[in-house]
Amino acid sequence: MARYELTDEQWRMLAALFPRQGRGGRWLDHRTMLNGMLWILRSGAPWRDLPERYGKWQSVNHRFNRWRRDGTFERVLKALQIRLDKQGKIDWDLWLVDGTSIRASRAAAGARKKSTRTTGSNPPTTAWAAAAADGDPSSTWLLTATALSSAPRSPRARRTKRRNSAK
Fold first, then answer.
1. How many CB atoms lie within 10 A of CB 33?
2. Which residues have C-beta within 8 Å of that of residue 114, sequence separation ≥ 6?
3. N or C: less crowded end of the chain, CB within 10 Å?
4. HEC readout, 99-163
5. Mean pLDDT of 101-117
6. Sequence-distant (≥ 6) Cβ neighbours of residue 128 within 8 angstroms
7. Element (H or E) spanning 62, and its range?
């Protein structure tokens, strides 16, 4: 038996909960398919990496989706819950407690936050404001920014400017 596969005892407990196999082509048995699904879920591998002993990955994927849609997995879960509850092995206060660790954002971890404007304080002077106020044009960036700010941005604005200058 492979690492992620169900034992005979586990399968005997679950076998009656799965739908009867349909007519038509040759189906792989439900146990093989379920073992393939468990392999994918436990390993975290993509469907295409499913070992060949479980059948074609497309077939296992289709049956997984079918069972998810038709409620087969819900029936299995409910039956297992009832069984474990009768044995006193489920603490319903802790049922489905998630142990996933989620990383907090940098701001939540104490990183510096972006400054916000508060009333009573002056916002920092930008290069655009300095250029408009005849500030020091020694910066190449400032000269480029000044030149770009006077040029029309859209094609329509350029056409309009050309027409107005031709008159």
1. 21
2. none
3. C
4. CCCCCCCCCCCCCCCCCCCCCCCCCCCCHHHHHHCCCCCCCHHHHHHHHHHHCCCCHHHHHHHHH
5. 65
6. 145, 149
7. helix 57-70
* Residues in contact with 1: Cβ distance below 8 Å, sequence separation at least 6, in sequence order: 7
Q: What amino acid is encoded at 25 in this protein?
A: G
d(CA 160, CA 5): 74
Domain boundaries, the chain: 8-86, 127-166
Per-residue pLDDT reduced to its tens digit, 49-72:
999 999 999 999 999 999 999 999
Instruction: Identify the pLDDT of residue 159.
Output: 67
| 125 contacts 132 by C-beta, under 8 angstroms | no
Q: What pLDDT does 74 receive?
A: 92
- Residues 81-102: pLDDT tens digits? 889 889 988 887 777 766 676 6
pTM: 0.54
Pick the more confident residue, 97 or 43.
43
